[in-house]
Amino acid sequence: MLLTVYSQFIDRVSEPVLKKLLDKLLEQHVINDQEMESVRSQQSRADKARDVIDTVRRKGSKASSLLIDALCEEDPCLFTELNLM
């Protein structure tokens, strides 16, 4: 599912939403502190978004579903625009 919206997610997710997604993913043990710091060390918002989606996709469908659920909570408009229902 995430692969189909990969480019759109990178182009459209905002910095504040990315921060909230990172917090939720860390809380749910989808990512660890090192992975979170890797994302935060990226210079651009797009690079951060790419790092988040790549990291989560590598962890499989359950991790991807948790990211999608978190996105629905944090940015319902983007969730709907990406057709992730």
Q: How would you portray this structure in words?
A:
By secondary structure, this protein is mainly alpha-helical. It has one domain: Death Domain, Fas. The protein has six helices and no strands. This is CARD domain-containing protein. GO terms for molecular function: cysteine-type endopeptidase activity. It comes from Oreochromis aureus (Israeli tilapia).
Mean pLDDT: 96
Annotated CATH architecture? Orthogonal Bundle
Number of helices: 6
CATH-assigned homologous superfamily: Death Domain, Fas
Which stretches of 5+ consecutive residues score pLDDT under 50?
Answer: none
Count of structural domains: 1
Per the CATH scheme, the topology name is: Death Domain, Fas
H-E string: HHHHHH
Task: Give a count of the beta strands, DSSP E runs of length 2 or more.
Answer: 0
Percentage of residues in strands: under 5%
Question: What is the radius of gyration?
Answer: 11 Å
Task: Pick out its properties.
85 residues; mainly alpha; Death Domain, Fas
Strand and helix map with partners:
Layout lengths: L5 H7 L2 H13 L5 H8 L4 H14 L2 H14 L1 H6 L4
Helix pairs in contact: 1-4, 2-5, 3-4
